[in-house]
Design brief:
Helix 2 packs antiparallel against helix 3 (80-101). The protein has 2 domains: 3-104, Enolase-like, N-terminal domain (Enolase-like, domain 1, 2-Layer Sandwich), CATH 3.30.390.10; 108-365, Enolase-like C-terminal domain (TIM Barrel, Alpha-Beta Barrel), CATH 3.20.20. The chain has 13 helices and 18 strands. The longest helix has 22 residues, at 80-101. The strands form 4 sheets. Strands 4, 5, 8, 9, 10, 11, 12, 13, 15 and 16 form a 10-stranded mixed sheet that branches. It is globular and about 60 Å long. Strand 9 (232-234), helix 8 and strand 10 form a beta-alpha-beta unit. By secondary structure, it is α/β, with parallel strands linked by helices. The chain binds magnesium ion.
């Protein structure tokens, strides 16, 4: 079998997505992939088009060799754009391999290790009672894991520490959120005290700091959350702040999760080897696909680190399906982040993973299970988009 073409499909059914279709000379056999990267999709699209010249004419079964050929092809390598482009191609190749074998991809990864993947939802509200009510909606649907955020900045990150869109001087910038650490550090433990008293101990509670704090503030927060026994505290530090992980570890036993913006196994390795984290949050779509995430999972397992793949709305249904195939098969699965997609997306993509009683599952059909309707995708033109900017109260760009 030979690869005869690589198509990139940019579409915005409710939000932006980048899908990939790899065509072969075998009638009816093609693979679908995804390289969505929140706002950077046009650059990822160009990278895939560039790489596609290296794989047209090759046997799509040779995934490992193709991955390494593409990874090292430019000499300068790595980074989020390249990792998402590589994932788009890698997913499509695994999809083809599954279709040829007549098996869902998780069967090719060693088979089922569990019934389904536990997932966590995003509860949020302007005050603790509202967060509780939001969490109860998830619990009623069967969720056993709920991420809790007081609303403030986008997605509830920074909670009451954020004031939104206050126009003034340099900081009167489109989409600006203003961050003040003090209200955040005080209100967050109070919210979790409320959640534990209201919801009891059977529900797993999570929280995402989203890199808003200095290392010292992060240590204060992790320590103050200890009595509420979080399942994990996410992105308390930035991946670049490795020098401060020992301090955070010594300050608190709150389990730590990091890694949604990490793009390779080599960035993960020191986090594992030094026992700085409990959960790794890299998602297949942002590290170069199933081929690279398998390596990361094996490394993590060697250091007793479990997975908690990033699964927010900024990655799409094929990336999510690929994550579920890995979730189902690896021994060191922890939890999977889970969001609902815009309803229009269901016209464009079929065979998505699905939620039932607190767990998520991929389809049992050969390959990843997902397919794309290109005519429907054309109805939703891609919209140029940027992430919001965060600033301190005096207008300074918020770097840490
Ligand atoms: Mg996060």
């Amino acid at each position: 079998m030979k690869i005869t073409g690589v198509k990139v499909i940019l579409t915005a059914p409710g939000r932006n997505f980048l899908f990939v279709k790899i065509l072969t000379d075998e009638p009816g056999i093609y693979g679908v992939g995804e390289g969505t990267l929140n706002g950077s999709e046009p650059i990822v699209a160009r990278a895939i088009e560039h790489l596609s010249n290296l794989i047209i004419g090759r046997d799509p079964a040779q995934i490992e060799d193709i991955w390494n050929t593409l990874y090292y092809s430019g000499y300068w390598r790595g980074g989020p754009i390249f990792a998402a482009a590589l994932a788009g191609i890698d997913f499509a190749l695994w999809d083809i391999k599954g279709k040829v074998a007549g098996l869902p991809v998780y069967q090719l990864l060693g088979g089922r290790s569990r019934d389904g993947a536990w997932v966590y939802g995003h509860a949020h509200g302007p005050e603790p009672k509202a967060v509780e009510e939001s969490a109860r909606k998830f619990i009623e649907k069967g969720y056993r894991f709920v991420r809790c955020q007081l609303e403030g900045g986008y997605g509830g990150y920074g909670g009451l520490g954020f004031v939104r869109n206050e126009p003034s001087g340099i900081a009167g910038h489109r989409g600006t959120d203003y961050f003040n650490y003090e209200p955040y550090l005080v209100s967050t433990p109070k919210m979790f005290e409320h959640m534990r008293l209201a919801l009891g101990n059977d529900i797993n509670l999570l929280h995402d700091v989203h890199e808003q704090l200095t290392p010292n503030e992060a240590a204060q927060l992790a320590k103050s959350l200890e009595p509420y026994r979080l399942f994990f505290l996410e992105d308390a530090l930035r991946p670049e702040q490795t020098n401060f992980y020992p301090m955070l570890r010594q300050a608190s036993t709150t389990p730590l999760a990091i890694g949604e913006i990490i793009t390779s196994r080599w960035e993960c390795l020191p986090l594992f080897q030094n026992h700085w984290i409990d959960f790794i949050r890299t998602a297949p779509i942002h590290v170069g696909g199933i081929t690279e995430i398998r390596r990361i999972c094996v490394l993590a397992d060697s250091y007793f680190v479990r997975t908690a793949f990033h699964g927010a709305a900024d990655l799409g249904p094929i990336g999510q399906a690929a994550a579920l195939h890995v979730d189902l098969s690896i021994p060191n699965f922890g939890v999977q982040e889970w969001v609902d997609f815009p309803p229009q997306l269901y016209d464009v993509i079929s065979g998505m993973g699905y939620f039932k009683d607190g767990m998520a599952y991929p389809q049992e059909t050969p390959g990843l299970g997902t397919d794309i309707n290109e005519e429907e995708a054309k109805k939703y033109p891609y919209q140029q988009a940027y992430m919001p900017t965060h600033r301190r109260g005096d207008g300074t760009i918020h770097l840490y």
